Amino acid sequence: MRIHLTSVFVDDQDKALRFYTDVLGFVKKTEIPLGEDRWLTVVSPEEPEGTELLLEPSGHPAVKPYKEALVNDGIPATSFAVDDVRAEFDQLRERGVRFTQEPLETGPVTTAVLDDTCGNLIQIAQSA
Length: 128
Hints:
CATH class: Alpha Beta
Strand content: 35-45%
CATH topology: 2,3-Dihydroxybiphenyl 1,2-Dioxygenase, domain 1
Number of domains: 1
Strand order of the largest sheet: 1-4-3-2
CATH superfamily: 2,3-Dihydroxybiphenyl 1,2-Dioxygenase, domain 1
Number of helices: 3
Order of helices and strands: EHEEEHEHEEE
């Protein structure tokens, strides 16, 4: 068994697609119209057949309080692996990304947390 798909709730699929592709560097994998919304996934260009990230609309009534609680408590919705957190932090900050946590070493892992502009905090992590 392996993870095929995971999702992050977004308040605007177009804005999310721009952020996750133009800013973070993911590539669009799937886009299927579903009424007002779309089945919209992105993948890492390093693993185009790897785990897909579904940019899932935040329309369900439970999503807003869930996302707000996570953000208010500083809890990331998901985590992405990077080779060098400090280098990624510098590059993303130059692109205008707002971080809520600068690079922090916690034992064998270095993390930073960014705002995805779609209502989520996202952690980037590097293992030693």
